[in-house]
Specification:
Blueprint (H helix, E strand, L loop, with lengths): L1 H22 L13 H10 L7 E5 L5 H10 L2 E6 L2 H14 L5 E5 L12 E4 L3 H14 L5 E5 L10 E5 L2 E7 L6
Parallel strand pairs: 1-2, 1-4, 2-3, 4-5
Antiparallel strand pairs: 5-7, 6-7
């Protein structure tokens, strides 16, 4: 499984800039690799998602995390992705699942997008992107906001919880209180 995934990632990394550049617009920093359904469920569980939460999925791909959160908990959820094909696919999936009134998908760069009203942030990005994003998470999110990452940590920010699931890792953090 791992060698196959690694081969997929390497091939996609080679061709992603060509494909994105041909469509015009910004090139994604990561290739799209869907999060397995059982990992989606674990991410929502470890973050204790529930009524009243506002979830943002950064690099949302086909929208499976926001859609699952809206469907299971009836919460508002937003996916942010830079790839227009993924946004289209996510919108189609939300309609299929009957949650288009609860979820929305925005084609934006996650390094400039506003997600400050989040109570939960999910992501499946590469380690260097997680580290680059961390200062924004700390500065712009309210203390106590829950952050969950599939597969990759955030540098030296130690997770509060780590769960291993079928060869995948889920990391959990809470945005700390800002020092005065």
């Amino acid at each position: 499984m791992i060698p196959h995934l690694l081969r997929m990632l390497m091939l996609a990394a080679l061709f992603a800039p060509l494909q994105a550049g041909a469509q015009g617009g910004p090139v994604p920093d990561v290739i799209y690799v869907p999060t397995p359904r059982e990992v989606v469920e674990e991410m929502l569980r470890i973050a204790s998602v529930g009524k009243g939460d506002v979830l943002y999925d950064l690099g949302s791909g086909d929208g499976r995390i926001p859609i699952a959160a809206a469907k299971k908990f009836g919460i508002r959820a937003t996916g942010i992705d830079i790839d227009p094909e993924r946004i289209w696919e996510a919108e189609v999936n939300a309609k299929k699942e009957g949650v288009e009134n609860l979820v929305r998908f925005r084609r934006e760069d996650l390094f400039t997008a506003d997600f400050s009203d989040a109570t939960v942030v999910t992501l499946y990005l590469l380690p260097d992107l997680n580290v680059r994003l961390r200062p924004r998470l700390w500065a712009e999110l309210k203390p106590g906001t829950r952050i969950v990452s599939h597969q990759f940590p955030m540098g030296d920010w130690k997770p509060e919880k780590t769960v291993e699931l079928n060869g995948r890792t889920v990391y959990f953090w809470t945005v700390p209180v800002r020092s005065q």
